[in-house]
Amino acid sequence: MPIDGQIDVLTTLPNRYSSFSLEAPAEEKLPGLSIVRISLPSHQSGMLDQAKSFISFAREVLLQTQGQKYDLIFATSSRLMTAVLGALVARTNRTPLYLDIRDIFVDTIKDVLPRHLAILTKPVFYFLERWAINSASKVNLVSLGFAEYFSARYPKQRFSHYTNGIDEEFLSVPKPESGPRTSDVVEVIYAGNLGEGQGLHAIIPDLAKRMHGRVRFTIIGDGGRKGALRAALISAGVDNVELLPPMNRAQLIASYQVADVLFLHLNDYEAFKKVLPSKLFEYGAMGKPIWAGVSGYAAEFVGAELDNSVVFNPCDAADAERVFGHLQLQDESRFRFEAKFARKNIASKLANDVLNTINLFKVKNK
Question: Using the 8-state DSSP alphabet, how is residue 183 labeled?
């Protein structure tokens, strides 16, 4: 049944990479929906650049929300400070907060900052995390791997578990039909961020060297460790890796379609054993074999949900080479996976949960 209401979305103009940007209107007005995209400076994904960008974003969000009346604030947070900003807006407006958590920054800080700086800042970030989580009426965790961390620290909080999903653009791609292979060299594609978290600089040079003559890698993307990856490739003397800049979604799908295998990797950090990379969902919908260097919950998810996929220990080129031989180099549809993780289905359940949160808040405050 249609519900009357108004949704105001505050986000950013596309700005992830200095080497790539997409055009999008700064403002859109639709029936029941207003979208404001805030302009931020481009950056190289470094911590200082990201901090400057966030300060600019937060300032504009606070201006946009000043004096407004809302029934609920929804904040989706792959960065801790976005959750903190959502909590600040909710408290200022005295409205319920629904947090959607996509990362555990306090858990990863020791891996992304120098040790002395991590020791100094961790108590501050833990205080901010506790303040944000305790400010929320409901918290959604996109990875079940987060559950133990959050439930142990916040036993009184209410949690849901709606994952990332598959966008319609990937679901509507024509289903693959495998034919006879025409080349002995396997085309492997990775597409995404090239940062410390992905750790491609720690795996691709050695792996490419080991699999020279058998595999050709195409790496699509940008990020703070792209320079380190390029330098490591030169040092290793490999010629079977091509680095390409970020692409728009249509170009990306076309690249996936001509690949033989899709590659994924997370760095060998303890905190990454809890995450569930969103890239798995678009990879899964393409029907291609998946070669994943992940551990913990992500490895369990791949084994349980994605046919014709193999997992190897992160940053372990020898293990990656070993498991590669277990892949079936053929395309196949994953109908069960697509039905279970279509984003529109997951979003519908999440939307109902948000509405229930609003109603519960109203009942409590009668």
Answer: -
Query: If residue 7 lies in a helix (H) or strand (E), which one and from where to where?
Result: strand 7-12
Count: domains in the chain: 2
> 295 and 219 in one domain?
yes
User: How far does Cα 250 stand from its chain's mean position?
Assistant: 19
Kindly report the CA angle at 242 between 22 and 246, in degrees rounded to 5? 10
CATH code of 47's domain: 3.40.50.2000
Beta bridge partners of 265: 293
| Tens-digit pLDDT string for the chain (366 aa) | 455 789 999 998 876 555 445 577 889 999 999 999 998 876 555 667 778 888 999 999 999 999 899 999 999 988 889 999 999 999 999 999 999 999 888 888 877 777 888 888 889 999 999 999 999 999 999 999 999 999 999 999 999 999 999 999 999 888 666 666 778 899 999 999 999 889 999 999 999 999 999 999 999 999 889 999 999 999 999 999 999 999 988 999 999 999 999 999 999 998 899 999 999 999 999 999 999 999 999 999 999 999 999 999 999 999 999 999 999 999 888 999 999 999 999 999 999 999 999 998 888 776
Contact 9, 34 (CB under 8 A): yes
Q: 180 is written with which tokens?
A: 């006879």
CB 98 within 8 A of CB 77: no
Domain around 138: 7-165+341-364
Distance CA 282, CA 278 (A): 7
Q: Are residues 137 and 222 in the same domain?
A: no
Compute the distance between CA of residue 79 and CA of residue 125 in angstroms, rounded to an integer: 11
Segment holding 191, helix H or strand E: strand 186-191
H or E element at residue 230: helix 226-236
CA gap 127, 45 in Å, rounded: 24
Verify that 173 and 157 share a domain, yes or no. Answer: no
Q: What is the pTM of this model?
A: 0.88
Regarding whether 345 and 278 lie in a shared domain, the answer is no
Coil, strand or helix: which one is 176? coil
